[in-house]
Design brief:
Helix content: 25-40%
Order of helices and strands: EHHEHEHEEEHEEEH
Radius of gyration: 15 Å
Oligomer: single chain
Shape: globular
Strand content: 15-25%
Number of strands: 9
Strand order of the largest sheet: 4-3-2-1-9
Distance between the termini: 25 Å
Number of helices: 6
Length: 171
């Protein structure tokens, strides 16, 4: 069985995210280095990694340099900042697969950029998502959501098995 990891919202090259999401970095270069180093420390080249959006604010060349140096088979689910570019663009900068839409994994884990209240909130799926950075879902059914933004796991990707166990314990 292939080991799987999930992460979201690295915002490579985005200086303003440091203040907005209360990230503990002096600048975007320190932030980028930390996220890249953590990624490659925990992920091997043969691992599968889902990135749930908002990957990079750099241009094509710098984004390509970053993505090609990240370990793993990389699947991007485009976020609100990524949709400004095409699927072809994201494949050309190094993603193995790209989707504009949420992906259902193992028939019960809905991977999406933003929390998908209209689906997960009906109890159909667990919703693994990004977008809300350091915040948490505040609703009656919050136990079926799991925020994988980098701020929530010390700026490293989440092991999918850990996520599944935590979701099962909550519900």
């Amino acid at each position: 069985m292939q080991k799987t990891f999930i992460t979201s919202n690295p915002h490579f090259g985005h200086s303003n995210i440091i203040e907005y999401a209360q990230r503990p970095f002096k600048d975007k270069y320190e932030m980028d280095k930390t996220i890249i180093d953590n990624w490659n420390k925990f992920l091997k080249k043969e691992y599968l990694v889902y990135v749930l959006g908002d990957i990079s604010f750099y241009g094509k060349d710098k984004t390509n340099e970053i993505i090609k140096n990240l370990n793993g088979y990389k699947v991007l689910i485009m976020g609100n900042h990524d949709i400004r570019k095409s699927i072809t663009y994201w494949k050309n900068v190094g993603f193995d697969e790209v989707s504009k839409h949420p992906i259902l994994v193992e028939d019960k884990y809905l991977l999406s950029h933003e929390p998908r209240y209209e689906l997960a909130g009906k109890g159909l799926y667990y919703n693994i998502h990004g977008h809300i950075h350091h915040l948490d879902i505040n609703s009656d059914d919050k136990d079926i959501y799991f925020n994988v933004c980098v701020e929530k796991n010390n700026y490293k990707p989440w092991d999918f098995e850990v996520i599944k166990k935590r979701l099962e314990v909550r519900s």
